[in-house]
Amino acid sequence: MSYIKSAALEETGFVILDRYDQAQDPKEWLDLEYVDWKSSGDTQFAPLASANGEIEVNGFWNHQPPRTDKDGVWIESQVAKAPRLTARAQEPGANVGRCRVIELKPNSYEETLYNLHQDDNNRLNPDGSGWIVRGFFNLSDDADSCLVLREERFDPDTEIRIPLPAGAQVIVDTQRFWHAVWHPGPENRYCLITSWESGPELDAFIAKHHGTTEHTSPPLDPAVIAHAQADVQRRFAERAAALAERGSADEGPEMSDV
Ligand SMILES: [Fe+2]
C-alpha cells in the first residue's frame, strides 16, 4: 500500500507545533454534550464530528456503509457550542474524520502503560490516499501530564513523553505508535482530538505553526519505570490466565483515543 504521508512525521512519527494561547478562548469544552465511551482509561467524549452527525463516537468502519476515518459529519448542536474548537479543527483545511473532545480522569503511570494502544485510523483507507494522523490540542492545563508514545509496546527505551500544558499542540501517527496519556490530575483533562488526512494542506499547517520533531522527554526515575513495567506484565499475565480458564482468546482492550 502506498499512502501520502507528511515528511514532517516520516522519521519520528510525531511533530510538535507552536503552543496555542489557550487562555484567550472561552472554555467551550465545558458546554458540550458528552457520551460515555470506554477508551484509554476512564473517559467520556464530546464529538464535534461523527460518522453521521449524531452524538456518538464509534469508529466509522462500524457504521453502514463502513468507511475509513474521513468525511466526518459536523454535529450542529455541538458546533454551535464550540465554534472556536471547530475552527481550530478545520484550520488546516485537510479532510477531517472523527473530531471530539476527550475527558480523561486522573490515572497512574502503571495504568498508562496498561492502556497503551495503537489506533486503527487507516482501516479501509484506499491505497494512494492520505494517511490518517491525529491532532491533539490540550485544552486544560496539565503541565505535569504526558502523552506517552512507544514504538515498541513493552520497550521503555522507545518511550517518548510529551508534556501537556494548556495549548500544547501535537500531531501523531497514532497507528504507528503505542500511545496513552499519563494524567496525575487532580482535575479531569480535556483535549481536542482530530483525525486529519495527510497531504499538502496538513503539511502547510505544520509549517505555519513551526512543527518540530526536536524534543527531550522530561526525566522519569528508572525505578518507577521498572516497577510499572513489572506491574503491567503481571496484569497482562493475570488477564491471559483468566481468559484461558474461560477458553476465550485475548484480543486485547479495544481503545481508540487518548
Ligand atoms: Fe488512540
Give an account of the 3D structure.
There is one protein chain. The chain has 258 residues and is an alpha+beta fold. The protein has one domain (7-246): B-lactam Antibiotic, Isopenicillin N Synthase, Chain (Jelly Rolls, Sandwich). The chain is 23% helix and 25% strand. The chain has 6 helices and 11 strands. The protein has helices spanning 7-10, 76-81, 83-90, 109-115, 200-208, 222-246, and strands at residues 14-16, 35-36, 43-50, 73-74, 96-104, 132-138, 142-150, 159-164, 169-172, 178-182, 189-197. The strands form 2 sheets. Strands 1, 2, 3, 4, 5, 6, 9 and 11 form an 8-stranded antiparallel beta sheet that branches. It has a 3-stranded antiparallel beta sheet with strand order 8-7-10. Strand 2 and strand 3 (43-50) form a beta hairpin. Helix 4 packs across helix 6 (222-246). It is globular and about 45 Å long. Fe (ii) ion (FE2) binds next to loops. This is Aspartyl/asparaginy/proline hydroxylase domain-containing protein.
CATH architecture: Sandwich
- Write down the CATH class: Mainly Beta
**Residue-averaged pLDDT, rounded?**
93
> Could you please say which CATH topology applies here?
Jelly Rolls
The rough form would be described as: globular
Distance between the first and last residues' Cα: 27 Å
The portion of residues assigned to helices is 10-25%
Largest sheet, if any? 8 strands, antiparallel
| Total individual domains | 1
Ranges where pLDDT stays below 50 over 5 or more residues in a row are none
SS elements, strand count? 11
Structural class: alpha+beta
Number of helices: 6
Beta-sheet strand percentage?
A: 15-25%
Bound molecules: fe (ii) ion
Order of helices and strands: HEEEEHHEHEEEEEEHH
Protein name: Aspartyl/asparaginy/proline hydroxylase domain-containing protein
